Fold these 4 entries.
Entry 1:
Amino acid sequence: MALEIDGLAVLCAIAEAPEAFPAIRSDVTKAAHALVTKQLKAKTLDLPGLRAVREALGPQPLALIVDGLKDAEVKALATRLDKHHPDLKDAPAVTHRRHLMALAGTLAPVSAPAAKPKAKAPARPRAGAKSAVKSAAGPAAEPAAASAEGPTAASPAAPADALASAAMAARPPRRPRQQD
């Protein structure tokens, strides 16, 4: 009957007494790199998991391991952990690495964009009692209705018109790269 050993306990013993294992020093380094890389590539890794890895290893060892990952692996990890970041899809690999390390630190991921309200088609006035009541109330009824809605209707920091809102959300066009 074969007994199973506790791999973590053995690795801890090797780490506590490296002088007892001089022949496997390079193998320990390769194994550590492979194990952390496997953890980073795990589909179940989330932002708290990445931060736990950084806390356990420290920022420099994690940065060295992230530098050893392929560009596509870093991009996939960064975009998976920060799905709504607008610049990550077209960014270079160095930006993905920096952003991943910032996420591992204290940077919060970009939140999902707010759902845009659907534009309603203008209502056609009916020839009836409702249109007569509305025209009799006049424009004075509209501010009263708006003030009755309270602060939940629109935040005080919201732009006054839709055009200002759209202008603030627009991204400038991409410039072509200059070749040397």
Entry 2:
Amino acid sequence: MRKVISTVMTLTLLLVLAWGGSAAARQIAPVEGLETLRRSFAGISDFSADIVQEKQISLLKRKMVSTGTVRFRKPSLFFMELNPPRASRLLLNDTQITLYFPREKSTSQMALPPEQSLQHWFTFLARPVTSLPDGVDVRADQQGDTLTITVIPRSGGQVREFAVTLLTDGTIRKLVISEKNGDQTRITFSRVRKNSGLSDKDFRIN
């Protein structure tokens, strides 16, 4: 359960930070990269997308591949659903996480500390970015209209680093989460729909 929550929270953080060329890639200042993300995010009230998740466990040779969907609506709702055979649904409402497994008909809940809440990150993104968030190092690379932001937490948690790739118009393309134990999760986004008017019924977990 903690591992699932850790991976999902990493995904949520990146989706909040970034809504997501043929030129040579160039490294840009981390603050400039985050500010580009903030501007891209400013005009988006909600988004949904199809995803393919590839999870490589360090002790296994084959990847576990799942498909699913994600949805997000400002200021505090995030939903992710993975299809069978590893079906699950997750709802984050600001600080409250609910995880539901349809096959087992089981539900788990967890409350996040305030500094990890969606509202905390919206407060950070409400004004121009002039410094990095506390507790992380950031690397930014740009190739044409494609931007990749890599975040390296300084804490002793499970995640070694995570990287999000998106277009400068706010269309997210890829997320890669690398863990300290060697596991890696790669999520590819497609059919991104922005500002479609998602309602409360789009965030029902069961």
Entry 3:
Amino acid sequence: MIRRPPPAPRSVCVDVPDGHGVIEVVGDERGSLLLLAGDPAVLEAGDGRGSVGRLAARAGTGGPGLAEVKYLTEWLGAPGVLPDPRTGQAPPPDPERLRPLLSLLAPGRYVLTAGLAPHDLRVVHPRAHQVHGRYAEEELALVTTDAWPPRDHRAVRAYGEHIRAGGAMPALVALFPTAHSSVGYLLDGHHKLAAYEREGVGPLVVRLFPQEPRTVRRADLDRARAAFADGTPRPQGDALERVLAAMRADSV
């Protein structure tokens, strides 16, 4: 009798006891905040007006960036993660290969999964000091953390040629606030994502999320209010102010 190999694990847990806290996500699927070097960078949340209304906001142009993770680009160009053609699921990558990125996270335990993005993927790109609203019908949304569309057209073309050639697929890395969140922050892979869109192919996404969601802190929301504003008072009932107030009610 021929024994079949055991199925590939769908997720892997990894401890980050000595993370530097350069990258942190707080909140849950109702609303979350991406912090870079301790400063609020991007917010994504329900707008409080129905179950499918969402908004995203970005800090000003002087806000923090993600240059610290760019040296992962070469390996993520072909990480050897092969999705199942029937299910789209893939075994998660070896956490040690992602250690340069993991070391930038806030200390704690994280979960890694990998797989092809669904067909109804949406790219959300709020611009500096602007609120981006949308009607959330997609199964997955990725919020950009860098220029979109990417400015390096040569890199996009190169990834497109790699995708057309087949074989190992380039990978995106997105950080989610919880396991059930349908919205993640794209940490690495903007050029790869643009190439996937150009080729009409669903991207390979490595999902990363804290095993235990992190509660939003009031101090973070206070800084977020200033970081996402344009220097003028927002009107009463403004969607962003409404979201910040709702998140504050659940903060610590």
Entry 4:
Amino acid sequence: MAMMTGFGLIAVLVGLAGWAGGIPAALRYSFGFGCLFFLIVAFGVAVRDSNHRDGDIRTIAVGGIPATELRQSRRLWVLLVALMTCLTALSLGAAIEIYLNVSSSFVPGAAVVFGLFGIFLATFLVVVAARLLRPGYVQLTRDGIRHRGWSFESYLPWEAVAGAKAAYNGYRMILVIGYANAAWERRYRTPVWRIDRLPPVPMIEVDCRKFAIDEALIFHLVTHYSNNPDARAELGSAAAVERARARDYS
């Protein structure tokens, strides 16, 4: 992140030098690259900083069924969309700039490459606008657990759940493990931009990095209801939220 910050500052300085030298395009693109580097740094910081917002645990109704919901971080999602928007603008802007400033009867190859890459990146924003990609959640109901990732949906009924545990695979996660013959409902919401993946077996894989909630609290909340069937009667009620805020999982 320190290196990316340095690259961003260098890009800004190069742009200012180019502008002072009578090259306004240098300012535009250097500022664009600087913005890209700073967004990468901000995204990295957001992944590592949960902010411990207990307000992201709430009670809702899903199809008339009450649920206790853990919302994924909106800040992380906004930064991801901003980063992709910046990269799209840089690619399409470069294609247009090259096409307009190269004296040739043919379309320059670089303009084609940047243009096609920019169009591909723009499909990400189209899918986001259609809400096929969106910030997700984990919903706990009396019947089961539903996980909406950025690009997929997954559901396990409680009778198909064998238990839950903490795990680590380069990052902290909670695994709600289903039986091999579980009635596991899952689907990707989009054929492209599958930016997070379903597990290969019946399982809910909660990536703690994507939540603005204390990781220990996520662990205790999910495992408490996964491993204690009698406690599920309070899911979807204020009691479940109050238990989370009080950290009462003894």
